[in-house]
Fold these 3 entries.
Entry 1:
Amino acid sequence: MNTIESTLVLLKPDAVKRKLCGEIISRFERRGLDISALKLVRLTRDVAAKHYEEHQDKPFYPALLEFITSGPVMAIVVTGPHAVSIVRKMMGATNPAEAQPGTIRGDYATTMDNNIVHGSDSVVSAKREIAIYFTVGEVYG
């Protein structure tokens, strides 16, 4: 049985600046996933801190907040059968040096700090993260 899920994808400031949003969205659509909501946002430090709260004690946290608030971010709700795991596989390893060619990070990311894309790591995380960026009426499907 196919489990329909929704997951949050953030196209980070480096993806927006490099004009990769259309290409990345097309990859999800060609895979058969639906775009249920989409918006371009400029994250405040408070929103970024809420999103990445589980990382607040890690050494990379200050740089992460600095980067994610440095420019516009495209927030996307991607929906479809097993969307969380499919999107994560499509994104590739967090470290672009370890990401396989054909994955989003393998094809476009250059450094660990600027790795193009975020995707929720579980259905529970997806629900929490989607609620940070979208109200119920903004998500279709």
Entry 2:
Amino acid sequence: MSTSTAPSAPGLPFFVYGTLRPGEVNHGLFLRGRTLREEPALLTGAVLYDGPDYPYAVEEPGGTVAGELVTARPEAYARLLAELDRLEEYRPGDPHNLYERVAREVAVGDGSAYAWVYVAAPSVAAGLRAAGTPIGGGDWRARR
């Protein structure tokens, strides 16, 4: 059973919902062999939008996004966090970010846990809300 963890705790797991999911291209490049656990999980309060070759989670009430909660090996955590920030083009405070890394509670198993989630940055989210294509059911794999 997973329990809730304080969002300020070091070493938060990651909630992944697109190309970092098991079986997807970036999972093999970034996560394979660097995780302790990968569990199905749900992020509520977000809608999934189709992007160019990858999805964006946009924070919106009423939506749910399917993904996995990925717990990194402690010895790999710092490097993995830096690599994922680069992959997602996230730089703290940069107004040109595609994604923002935020701590959010996700449902996992019969409980919940806080995790890092890469959500669409404000300018990207505004464009997606105006003219983007939502992915029905919130599952990027199911869109194909």
Entry 3:
Amino acid sequence: MQTQLLIRRATVADLPAIVALVRDVVPLMNASGNFQWTAEYPNAAVFEKDIAQNHLWVAELTGQVIGIAALTQDQDAEYADADWDATEPALVTHRLAVSPQAQGLGVAQALLQQAEHEARALGLRTLRVDTNSENAATQRLFPKLGYRFAGEIKLAFRPGLRFFCYEKRLD
């Protein structure tokens, strides 16, 4: 029986578990005033695309998917409004989520450590992430992991929301 956390690339077979995880997370996010995600976003099509591009990673414990993160080099155009050099290539963490039953177990930290590993493997020295201004948990987590606050932006595809940007430089 598997007893330790496994971080691996997501496969199409993981899609039902990923969608179920997001379905569990969204109401909790919304209840805390964080409307970054809704019943419409992110959806199965978004995750199918992430999987097809080898961008989606899962955290698995005892055979269950308990966390996800898309690790890409995609930087939204609005990233130019943050306090960083938006022209610099970076590994960006998108769609980071942890099952409510697994929160507090270090799953998000493990996924962000995978982002560091991937960045180094790709020869990148910069990690970036954004989070909704109402997501207090990630705003506490990112600085603990060495990310610096890099300003606030708005994203065209999420109107009415504010996002805080964080960046980490790798040595």
